[in-house]
Amino acid sequence: MKQKTTLATLWEILLVSTRLGLTSFGGPVAHLGYFHEEYIRRRKWLDEKSYADLVALCQFLPGPASSQVGIGIGVMKGGLLGGITSFIGFTLPSVIALILFAILLQGLHISTSGFIHGLKIVAVAVVAHAIIGMAQKLTPDLKRKAIALIALVGTLLWQSALTQVGVILIAAFVGYLFYKNEQVSNEKTVQFPISKRFAIICLALFFGILIALPIMNDLTSLSWIAMFDSFYRSGSLVFGGGHVVLPLLEKEFVPTGWMSEEAFLAGYGAAQAVPGPLFTFAAYLGAVMNGWQGGVIATIAIFLPAFLLILGTLPFWNMLRSNQSINGALLGVNAAVVGILIAAFYQPIWQSSILSAPDFAFAAILFSMLVYWKLPPWIIVVTGALGGCLILPYL
């Protein structure tokens, strides 16, 4: 590492990131706005250009973009320990809240609970909003709309985690063919306090763990290795942020019998009520399966790829962002993400949540509250839970 970090610096990072972790509602795009206001405008930890570079890098990588930006800001302010401290502060509040929610649900009859049904309808409104926003940004032309359509059809007709990985790889190749000559703007370089040697070690660990975990899972019968493998793989292969991890996680844990679809969607709805990254949904899933210990393991597993990738690519970003071929492949992947998300919206979200005309009407109300009235997400979640209690008796 090239930067000396003091305890005072780490303490400052922890305090600021924890406050953001307690107050940052609204999903990944909103988180980037909170970061810009706090880290760039108020504290001036980075200049505008460096922040833009960091955001661009994290959009390029799989995993939770806002969490990776937070980690990157911590690294640039306080080195490796600064990145770890920033991650803990931003993530821990929602991890604790979702583990407690999972534990409280253990004694309830989830499938017949009105507020759980309401949380599932909340998931409909939230994901619909995410789809509209992402489609406008990531599929602006006919070629990318076609990529999204093919991804949607393929994911719906052949439903498996491997299908989604294949769709992403094919989309990257098609994007390369379509956009390999797309002009990339020439911008000044920015320096990151990570050595290339350390970065290469992180990248080697990322791929090494990704390859080794399935092998270990086949050779052993330990449930925690199987769970770690599923969460690590999901965190490694998701482009597009927290909403897109839903179909991967659903395919990993619902058909295999780890948990019921009702419990899965209830947790996804509850995840909208807490601030911080949506990837902490993994903490809820792990806690449902194996108590608070499972929640901790799941959180580490799903965020570890994000850590290794951001640390492994920071020193090489100046070279990557000027490569037209890589930029073209990324455009294709981002378009495919839209199709995968629409497929997830239909199954399992829509089919499991919208069971009647009152459900549809209530989903429309929640969507309007979120999109047009721009109410805070926690209000949408509370309204959904209360409304579900009123709707369920009439189903």
TrEMBL record:
Keywords assigned: Cell membrane, Membrane, Transmembrane, Transmembrane helix
Protein's UniProt keywords contain Cell membrane: yes
Membrane topology of this protein: Multi-pass membrane protein
Nuclease as UniProt keyword: no
InterPro entries: Chr_Tranpt_l_chain (IPR014047), Chromate_transpt (IPR003370)
Subcellular location(s) per record: Cell membrane
Sequence intervals crossing the membrane: 80-103, 115-135, 147-178, 198-219, 231-249, 269-289, 296-317, 329-346, 378-394
The organism's place on the tree of life at top rank: Bacteria
One Pfam family, short name: Chromate_transp
Stated family: Belongs to the chromate ion transporter (CHR) (TC 2.A.51) family.
Name used for this protein in its record: Chromate transporter
Organism, as annotated: Metabacillus niabensis
